[in-house]
Amino acid sequence: MKAAKKETKLEPPQWPAELPNVALEGVRFRAKDDFQLGSVSGITIEEQEAHKVSFEQFIFRHVTFTSCSFTGMELTDVFFDSCDLSNTVLTESFLHRTVFRNCKLIGTDFTGSKFRNVRFIDCVGDYASFRFADFRQATFERSSLVGADYFHAGLGKTTFSACRIDQANMAGTKLAGIDLSDCEFAGIKVDIENVKGCIVSAQQAASFVGLLGVVVK
User: Fold this and answer.
1) What does the pLDDT look like over 189-205, one tens digit per residue?
2) pTM for the whole thing?
3) Which residue from 24, 32, 136, 182 lies 20 to 30 Å from 69 (Cα-Cα)?
């Protein structure tokens, strides 16, 4: 019998029972704008560029971000539900107790960001960039991460559960203790020296054996 995958325990987002609706549509974001205790739904936020914008105890539902760059964004106790952040720039951001559920994150740029107690649930994050990101307590659950880039990322206490990670780039990333056994992939990019301790299924093992120059027949 296959052993159960060890789950990563996360702190959930925290907010009061009711959050007031906030009007963000048409707002021009400025550097270091701070938004707290609010909920926004069914709008499009477009052509915005601002550094170190922060949201705390905030919920986004069915919100589309178009042509937006929020470098150094700070998110604490934030929930993105059925949002589209495709190609949004969120480099060098800090995310704590944040959840992305049923979101489009195609090509989203999280390069150099820090993730603390963050969940990605039923998301499409194909070709998203997590290069040089630092994960501590994070989960990717039932998400598509085809071609996602984890180059030199730190995956401390990070779980991948039932994800599609075909052609993901994990070069330079230590995979010791990372369980990919229930993920779907025909091939991923890794370094031989960083594969030790990675947990894979018997079927997946052939992909890793190929890194050693061994031909499996």
Assistant:
1) 888 888 888 888 877 77
2) 0.92
3) 136
Environment class of 177 (CB within 10 Å of its CB; exposed 0-12, middle 13-18, buried 19+): middle
Residues in the chain: 217
Domains of the chain as residue ranges with CATH:
34-212 (2.160.20.80)
Residue 116's nearest CA partner among 130, 99, 129, 97 is 97
Q: Any residues with CB less than 8 A from the CB of 127 and at least 6 apart, and which?
A: 106, 107, 146, 147, 148, 149
Find where tokens 């959840």 sit: 99
Residue 207 DSSP symbol: H
Identify the DSSP state of 21. Answer: B
Whether residue 1 is predicted with pLDDT greater than 50 in this model: the reply is no
Say what the pLDDT of residue 115 is.
Answer: 98
Token readout for 71 is 């470098």
Cα 25 from chain centroid (whole Å): 25
DSSP 3-state helix, strand, coil percentages of the chain (rounded to 5)?
Answer: 5, 35, 60
Give the C-alpha separation, 21 to 41, whole Å: 8
Share of the chain above pLDDT 90, in %: 76
CA distance 143 to 145: 6
CA distance linking residue 123 with residue 101, whole number of Å = 6
Which run of H or E residues covers position 76? strand 74-81
pLDDT tens track for 13-38: 999 889 999 999 888 999 999 999 99
